[in-house]
Amino acid sequence: MSTTVPPADGVTWAMVEDGFYVGSRDGEFLGYIDREAESRYVACNMYSRPAGAFRDLGEAMEALRRSSALQDGTGEDE
Fold first, then answer.
1. What is the domain count for the chain?
2. Is residue 53 part of a domain?
3. pLDDT in tens, 35-66
4. Range 33-66 burial, b when 16+ CB lie within 10 A, else e
5. Does residue 27 fall inside a structural domain?
6. Which ranges of 1-78 does DSSP label H, i.e. alpha helix?
7. Does residue 76 fall inside a structural domain?
8. In sequence order, what are the residues at sequence separation of 6 or more whose Cβ sits closer than 8 angstroms to the Cβ of residue 57?
9. Structure pTM?
10. 23 pairs with which residues across the strands?
11. Could you tell me the residue range of the domain that residue 16 belongs to?
12. CA dihedral 65, 34, 17, 28 (to 10 degrees)
């Protein structure tokens, strides 16, 4: 089963299996988030390199969104 989170700033998140989320921005792969424990989410960028561990899913999503914005040159950090 997959669930999709509505886009914000061109970013779409899909839960492809329980605790595993894949993000894209305007159709381009953004990264993924893996829930390792009840309150630990590990975010990895588009190159599968760890971007950090977070206490909740929203924090992990925001970190990848910001990281992607900086990498693609938009400089959006809001």
1. 1
2. yes
3. 998 889 999 999 999 999 999 999 999 999 98
4. bebeeeeebbbbbbeeeebeebeebeebbebbbe
5. yes
6. 57-71
7. no
8. 21, 33, 35, 41
9. 0.78
10. 13, 31
11. 3-71
12. 30
